[in-house]
Amino acid sequence: QVQVMESGGGLVQAGGSLRLSCAASGTISSINSIAWFRQAPGKQRELVAVSTDSGGTRYLDSLKDRFTLSIDHAKNTAYLQMNSLKPEDTAVYLCNLVLKDSRTLRPLDIWGQGTQVTVSS
Hints:
The protein starts with a strand and ends with a strand. By secondary structure, it is an all-beta fold. The strands form 2 sheets. Strands 2, 4, 5, 6, 9, 10 and 11 form a 7-stranded mixed beta sheet that branches. Strands 1-3-8-7 form a 4-stranded antiparallel beta sheet, with no helix packed on it. 0% of the residues lie in helices and 63% in strands.
């Protein structure tokens, strides 16, 4: 069984920083991709950043100068460093992993529960 747990969200003033964590645990053989999405109230879910084992890291164009995705492969943990936060960054941030289950060797698409980020003006 595989679990994904996000943490690090909270309330921050505009211009501040937060670092989100996405920790995967359980029967993981390999991770193919790790992505962060966000969903603001009344808006569609959008891709913030994604890292794949073959394609490097890509960002939403409007965020690439402020957000950085990094991965600690030894811990199966991904981080999203968010700097110079703006009120429009307020959203629930969700982590998504595509990985191979070591028990079945089948691919799994796993979502975390989400963590709230609120940026006050």
